[in-house]
Structures are given as C-alpha cells and as structure tokens.
Design a protein that fits this description.
Length: about 230
C-alpha cells in the first residue's frame, strides 16, 4: 500500500516544483527592463527632441538590431504607458530604433528595428538571413494570413538586393520628407517599407532599364541613396 501511495505523491511533488521553477523563470524573463527615450513623431526624431525621457520598458526579446517591447511602464507606479506604444521611434543606448507599426510590409507593433543608416532625408534598416525571426518572418506573427503571404512573396516583387557575396538583403526604407498625417493608431510620421526596384528608379530618377536596376548590387543601391541623402 505504501509503495502505491508514495510514488504518486512524489510525482506530484516533482511536477509542482517544476511548475514553480518554470513560472519563476518566465517571470524573471518578462521583467527584464531597459530605459529608453521616445520620439512621438518623425518631426521629433528629425529635430532630435525626445517626447519622453527615461521611460522603462519590459523586454520580450532583444537582439543586436531589434527590441521587442512587452510594454512601456511608469517605473514609479508600475502602470502601463499606453500612448508610448505609438511612438514613431525610440532611442536606446545611443542607437535609434524604428517602430514597425509604421510599416505596411512589416507591420508589427512594439517591435523596433535599429537604423543601420540615418541621413537628412532617408533612414534605412537592413534585413538578411541573420535577422531576428520576429523581423524577417514578421507576417508569421499574424497567423500566416495575408500579411504573412505578402512578406513571403516580397522576393517576387523585387524587394531584395544581392550584395557582392550573392546574399539577399532587404532594405527597410524610410523617407523622412514624406509623412502621413496622424490617424487611428498612428502619430504623424513617415512609413517604412521594403525598397522595390521600380521605387528606386522613380524616386531617384535613374535612367536605367528594369533589367539594369535588377542587376544593381546592394552596395550600389546604398551608394545611390547615400549620394542623395544630404
């Protein structure tokens, strides 16, 4: 009898301990914090004027080139700062990060991608096979729906460029001179979308055929943009 009773109790005890440890680990991970400064709009970013400073974020995931924010909070009260979710960009540790909620192609609120290039007119972030899954597979976060299909089909639409090593790289392109007025869920600001070949041709007045533009390398595309980014 004792053997029959003790084994289930021991098993339940071990399961309980494992559950407690799992919850503790999950809670610790969820409570990872960082201090950021907020740019409410594109104009705030251009003028380097913070809308709010020393705002605490709870981090869901952080990588070399992105921050996935669980929520923005008032560290004194512990309450959520709801409007902070709509910040056009944030500054963390000397780097600026763009809110993917302001992107049609990579629409993903609370995921911020670091700018790889910043200029007077344009900003860019680069996405390759080494980018975080939450960025390069952004559409998957929407249950594999239309957004996911659009992201997966982006190669067919000429939204990638090959570098000198034949690696595919997508350019998230933000035109600071072209801003959308504030609407539901977004502040006034520029959108950031994947740079297409025909867009490169028209925006920079390139006298090249589509075939010639298709053969441009990632490095050549950057050189074109940088020449016009002053």
């Amino acid at each position: 009898m004792n053997g029959i009773i003790v084994k289930p109790l021991t098993y339940l005890k071990n399961i309980t301990i494992l559950l407690i440890l799992t919850l503790l680990c999950t809670n610790l991970k969820a409570q990872e914090k960082a201090i950021v400064n907020l740019f409410k709009t594109t104009d705030d970013y251009i003028s380097n004027t913070y809308t709010d400073t020393n705002v605490t974020i709870l981090i869901k995931e952080m990588g070399e080139n992105h921050i996935w924010v669980k929520k923005f909070i008032d560290d004194k009260t512990g309450k959520k700062i709801k409007k902070a979710n709509y910040s056009w960009a944030i500054e963390y540790n000397g780097n600026n990060y763009f809110n993917l909620g302001y992107s049609h192609d990579l629409n993903n609120w609370n995921v911020f991608i670091k700018f790889n290039s910043e200029g007077e007119k344009y900003c860019m972030s680069f996405i390759d096979n080494n980018s975080a899954g939450v960025i390069k597979n952004s559409g998957i976060n929407y249950g594999g729906g239309l957004q996911g299909v659009l992201m997966k089909d982006s190669d067919k639409w000429g939204k990638y460029w090959r570098n000198n090593n034949e690696e595919k790289i997508k350019i998230l392109f933000i035109d600071l001179t072209n801003q959308m007025e504030a609407n539901t869920g977004r502040n006034k600001g520029s959108l950031g979308n994947l740079l297409k070949r025909n867009e490169l041709k028209t925006k920079f007045g390139l006298e090249k055929t589509y075939a010639e533009i298709k053969n441009l390398t990632f490095e050549e595309v950057l050189a074109i943009i940088e020449r016009n980014n002053k």
